[in-house]
Specification:
The protein has 89 residues and is of the alpha+beta class. It has a single domain, classed as 2-Layer Sandwich (Alpha-Beta Plaits), CATH 3.30.70. The chain contains two helices and five strands. Strands 1, 2, 3, 4 and 5 form a five-stranded antiparallel sheet that branches. The longest helix is centred in the middle third of the chain and has 12 residues.
């Protein structure tokens, strides 16, 4: 993966949960992605996880009544080297 690739943002489709896009690094095989997906699904307030292995990003839908982008960022820092960047849009 290109370390300079990507961006991150939070968006909300009309009538749906907000989504944060997370760039992933150092996850190269199915077991690493499976572990990362399990970790992300376990974060407070996460309602849906979609890993785009081609682009190296995860899309996390979350319940804004339970968590915020800032809280998710703090949790994602605990993910260590698997996460390159995250943020609010």
């Amino acid at each position: 993966m290109n370390p300079d690739h990507g961006h991150s943002h939070v968006s909300r489709a009309q009538g749906s949960a907000p989504v944060i896009e997370v760039d992933i690094r150092n996850a190269h095989d199915a077991s690493e992605y499976a572990g990362l997906e399990e970790y992300l699904r376990g974060l407070p307030g996460i309602t849906f996880v979609h890993l785009d292995r081609t682009r190296g990003v995860a899309h996390l839908s979350y319940d804004s009544a339970v968590t915020t982008p800032g809280a998710l960022e703090r949790h994602l820092k605990g993910c260590g080297s698997a996460v390159r960047s995250y943020g609010r849009g």
